[in-house]
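Archive transcription. Copying these from loose printouts into the bound notebook so they stop getting lost. Printout 1 of 2:
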Amino acid sequence: MKIGKMIATFGTAAILASCGNAEQKAEGDFRYLIDEFADLKIMRYRIPGWDDLTLKQKEYVYHLGEAAKYGRDIIWMQNCKANLPVRKAIETVIDGYGGDRDCKDFQDFLVYAKRVFFSNGIHHHYAEDKFFPDCPKDYFKSLLEASGYDKDADALLDVIYNPDIYPQRKSTDASGDIVAASAVNFYENVTRAEVEKFYAGMIDANDPTPVSYGLNSKVVKGEDGVIREEVYRIGGLYGAALEKIVAELEKAREVAENDTQKKYIGLLIEYYRTGDLELWDEYNIEWVKDTLGTVDFVNGFVEDYNDPLGRKATWEGLVNIKDHEASLRTETISENAQWFEDNSPVDSRFKKPVVKGISAKVIDATTLAGDCYPATPIGINLPNADWIRRDHGSKSVTIANITHAYNKAALESPNSTLKEFAWSEEEVEMAEKYLNITDEIHTDLHECLGHGSGQLLPGTSSTALGEYSSTLEETRADLFGLYYIADPKLVELGIIPDGEAYKAQYSNYIRNGLQVQFTRVEPGRKNTEAHMQNRKLIAEWCYEAGKDGNVIEKKVRDGKTYFVVNDYEALRGLFGKLLAEVQRIKSEGDYAAGKALVEKYAINIDPDLHKEVLERYAALNLKPYGGFVNPEIVPVEKNGKVADYRIEYTTDYLGQMMEYGRKYATL
């Protein structure tokens, strides 16, 4: 499970934009913000502690990073089967066009190219709707012809410009067939009913250690009418990319820090060779055990957010090193995991009697890849299988240098959403005092404990909530963090500075969930992304449930709308009440109740309020989405041998995308 970028974009970063540039000067001339276009900003991140690593650790990081980058084509193909042909056509133009590159039409083409690179395809990375070039179709065709494009340009341009072809990456229209209506490349020639029937025969509701059937495959109905799985493995689907990944993993295994790492890398390699999901489970169990190493990674088919049925996983990679000093806070949280579980406001039937293996740490990313690149989470909790969490525990990480980069990039902007959407100067002052630390702690609670809390009742399938599972799971984890961030226990443990700090998080969360986050949604569109749905669900449910007590008040001043928390204690009670209900829904697999919550509170945006928010945000001249280029890890040779690995920080977003296309293309 991943926690997204909204906190960094609209929380701490928004505040720091109004706090001056003293910290920025401390880092000399290093700029974090390197490019802006459309609704996007591109940043770079630093790798603190690199020089403290041994040569062997650096080599380990390097090969893990190469293994991660070789998965790039997989995520492009998974998002939509038209994505790679579009990308390769764009690369052909950028490499081969010799005409006027300064004219408006070519600049518009470049913006489209950058957007496609950012989204790993032709659909918006967050809103999931297809986007289009601003340059004319005939001009795009002339670019292709002048660049030596040797395929059917008309067919390609129809995919790019026709709004009726692949309109949404993932459909959320419950009135239709969400499988057939989605552009994702997990299914071919099959309906939702056929897919659900296909997997129904594999699921044993009484199996205490169920296999995540379908996680690493595509379901296809052939010309003979038979439905089959095409499994991601060497010799199977995406085999060429997986061969490259495995080759780098084998090199990494040779220089791993300990035998546990060598063991689970071996299991991962065998899983990629066979596609056997039982090996994937074995790998995750061994991976959870590795809590002592400095270097860690994620590499695989992990998250199911993009699948309309919440079953199939996209490929992602993340390599990181531990921030030992900053991890003391998360270690304190994980050491007290049983207390948090025991004192949760949920029904005792849904609590884990014994919490196992919760490990938490603060990390610094060294390589982002797949579904974590260029847009990346700021926190991760894995593995996702409920039974592995129950029996073996989970790993939770907060990615410090990514949050740091968001904050530093915000210092380079003169405006902030905080001052625009906060009701009073008191709210602004409270946020400036506390929101930095409470953002981090909410992320810690969400990832360290929230995702790992609770248990399914016997006989409840982990896929029972279907297309609503991702939104409800993120809702559950966010509510866990919101409920506990106000608990005196956190002050007692020295995690939060005092009993007032949580109020900054509560006010910010409500502002964001009811207003600010919709700067990311185009007028007239629905709210479709799982993390945004979860925030809207929580904020709107609490606003409605607390009306009698005026817990959250809607105020208007000078024609501008504000949402103000009047009773923080009562709001905490509402968070606890909703957490209890969402946990019940998950534990019992209550599909109908989950659907009702999501469809009532999470999807539809008030059009008048949305229009106002967009107008107010436009005046700030900020970009609502952010992503990153990777630092380059470069081997340094001496006397024919690698003597070191140095870090080079690029400022060329388009150049990195083109280089990755040349170096890591496999499909």
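Printout 2 of 2:
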Amino acid sequence: MNKEYINSNFPLLSQIDSPVDLRALPVESLPQVCSELRRFLIESLSVNPGHFASSMGAVDFTVALHYVFNTPYDRIVWDVGHQAYGHKVLTGRRDAFENNRKMNGLSGFPNPKESEYDAFIAGHASNSISAALGMSIAAQLQGDKDRNVVAVIGDASISGGLAFEAMNNASINKNNLIIVLNDNDMAIDECVGAFGEYMSHLNTSRKYNDMKMKVYEYCVRHKLINEHGRGLILRFSNSVKALLANRQNIFEGLNIRYFGPFDGHDVAKLVDVFNDIKDMRGPRIVHLRTRKGKGFAPAEKDPTTWHAPGKFNKDTGEILSKPSDQPHPLKFQDVFGKTIVELAQADEKVVGITAAMPTGCSLTFLQEAFPKRAFDVGIAEEHAVTFAGGLAKDGLKPYCCIYSSFLQRAYDEIIHDVALQNLPVVFCIDRAGLVGEDGATHHGAFDLAYLNCIPNMIVSSPIDEHSLRNLLYTSNQVEHGPFAIRYPRGGGKLVDWHNDMQVLPIGKGRKLSSGERVAVLSIGPFGSDVAEAVAKLRSEGVNVAHYDMIFLKPIDEAILEEVGKMYHTVITVEDGTIRGGLGSTVVDWFNDHGYSTRVYKMGIPDEFICQGTVAQLRDYCGIGKGEIKNRIKELFYKTV
């Protein structure tokens, strides 16, 4: 959308270049601002895809927050960031929003490097309360006693362990923390667990809230209590509430003052609520009931599909798929989902676990076929891993499917609760490598390196979907300890489901082609690109060897010995960080065994990689298809 179009179609929004402009408007204009902001998001995201339903549901309270609080002096800390598109538009990035999630454009998530209004990076769930509490205490210690810090967190994210740890700590330190609970009964899929059910039934009467507020204000005004004595009032009010509602309020039980629930789409009411509480002291939580996809009927009806729908028709709500005359290849995650059902049909000990991503990782196939053997534990990666360890300890075969960047959150549990006891948990690591437009918070760049150093761990990566099926079958048929299988987002080749699966020897790779002078060692799906490059180079007289290692740990020492004796130069290719992965392992092995073979490593550089298409990011990292071919050719002619 160009400037002229924005000016003519969004008369209020076009005048808001910062929250200062928003705060200059009368409160009566805010509903129109919300309406225009929703239309702006619909028009923008229909042609430049992103996270849709979450941000649509957050529009009204986003406007109210920036209207009431003095941002950026007052901080807003977003949880995850899927809900923060409206925040970006209101904070000076309206005209740049067409480049959201594009290379050299806006990040899809809040990022302090991008704007002073982005208080904290928000890519993984449940961190907002901890970060906001730290900022609030920092303000108190440094004399900024009037600064408010607001943590915006969803009802799915607040069930995460980190959020509970933060709330447990919030009432014992002096702070001005405000928690805004965006309660829409959803994560990406539906919320699971008892806490979600508790939230859906938590209801406080307006009369009770008014009574509590008046009693508190009267006591402060007449100096009957001070902020140090407010705990007495909280405990008293908690007891009254328990009697009235026959239900303990968990937040006030933690000495966090609770207000709500309120209609999260009534912007005028929200302004009143935020104004009422902003000058209070101590931790407070404002409970808002919202609807994901609010303002766009298809998204309201099916928020899971509309979490990130891709391009769509803004008038009809039709989701547009890319035109293609070829049959669509199966995605790696669908190959996993279909294969685990096959394994479960043959072996009653097979169970599946995911952390709030059954649709994304395709565990839905197992949920449909064997609902009692598929577990969605919610946004709780640490629990998912230790839960899997408990299942394995007593004889089951758990397949724990978690995105690569999310599995980082459970690193201690992988080491302490699984690897230390050598338990046979299979880690199915989805979204490994570069994932594209979600950027630095979501790239699966580190799993090869962070798993490689753990004793007892098997680390593998399939070159294609057939290899993924074989690795999954191997993990079911062979006795083992922790077994990691990591694979990328998206699809490659069609899978012939009539092919029988094969048991692969643990720690053994395979030679795909022989050659001279130079050998290329690859792991994972980049191996297909290497094989293609090697075949093209052969027609040009560049004859190099290629090995698909399959396993990083244990690495195939027979291949390394053969390569060390026969080739002067080795090139390693991987879709993980260049430090600690395949290249580093090969260099260490050659050094330990006295080989002088030169090793050139190709992988993700030692930096956090921004957003962009996967092809753009591969080129940026020097591991695009063209770069792989050129590097092989260059080193072949350099090698004597």
